[in-house]
Design a protein that fits this description.
Elements (H helix, E strand, L loop, with lengths): L1 H17 L1 H7 L7 E6 L6 H5 L6 E6 L13 H12 L4 E7 L3 H7 L8 H6 L4 H8 L6 H20 L3 H8 L4 E7 L6 E5 L4 E4 L19
Parallel strand pairs: 1-2, 1-3, 3-4
Antiparallel strand pairs: 4-5, 5-6
Helix pairs in contact: 4-9, 5-8, 7-8
Length: 220
């Protein structure tokens, strides 16, 4: 706790004064362009890896960067997605998995989680990714986990498209969907190319998009 308080004092002394005008503007409004959905893992910092300032990202973090499919009883993730899309009008949604993900490791290796019923229940939202991953041959356990991380990003992209607010924005050509996997050790990001369902280096292919917004077609 001491480190957190010292960090806050440093923020007040050094960082806040440098952005004082920005915070004055943000005091009464926000217009983030991107909804960024990623894992709660302490090593994954969305604003750091994308170099964004306060007010530029609307962030959801949870175990396994999961987006449950829409249901009659929506929870916190569903409410946040709806607010980001329908109220804030974000134009891009990123679902970002990462290397060495504890949640995806547990799923891929079928670890017993009887002592963690909340976690076990939550990770059932990755079941479709697990089924696909289990159907494939992997050279070793590391490769199996890495594949699970990617399949989970694909699965969560499918889940988020069941949300009415997202489907409506897609129908109007207002939102792009992106699937990323961040490698902690190298700092690299691979992005899903929906045309061939492969992940490409974002450095080499910066325009890669999982689901591109389509212009609205006029009615015949």
């Amino acid at each position: 706790m001491k480190a957190l308080i010292e960090g806050f004092l440093k923020f007040q002394k050094d960082a806040f004064p440098q952005r004082e005008n920005l915070f004055k503007h943000l005091a009464t409004t926000q217009h983030p362009g991107t909804l960024f959905i990623t894992c709660s893992d302490s090593r994954v910092i969305p604003e750091l890896l994308t170099q964004q300032e306060p007010g530029e990202l609307f962030v959801i973090r949870n175990a396994g960067n999961i987006v449950p499919s829409y249901s009659p009883h929506p929870g916190g993730v569903s409410a946040t997605v709806e607010y980001a899309v329908a109220v804030l009008g974000v134009t891009d949604i990123v679902i970002c998995g990462h290397s060495d993900c504890g949640a995806m490791t547990a799923v891929a290796q079928c670890k017993c989680m009887d002592h963690l019923p909340g976690v076990a229940g939550w990770l059932q939202h990755a079941e479709s990714a697990k089924v696909i991953n289990e159907s494939r041959t992997h050279v070793n356990e590391t490769a199996k986990v890495n594949s699970m991380v990617r399949e989970n990003v694909i699965a969560q992209l499918a889940n988020i498209q069941t949300h009415p607010s997202v489907r409506l924005a897609q129908e109007k050509g207002l939102v792009n969907l992106h699937g990323w996997v961040y490698d902690i050790e190298t700092g690299s990001i691979d992005a899903l190319d929906a045309d061939n369902r492969t992940f490409k280096s974002l450095v080499e292919h910066p325009t890669t998009c999982a689901v591109q917004a389509r212009p609205v077609q006029a009615a015949a």
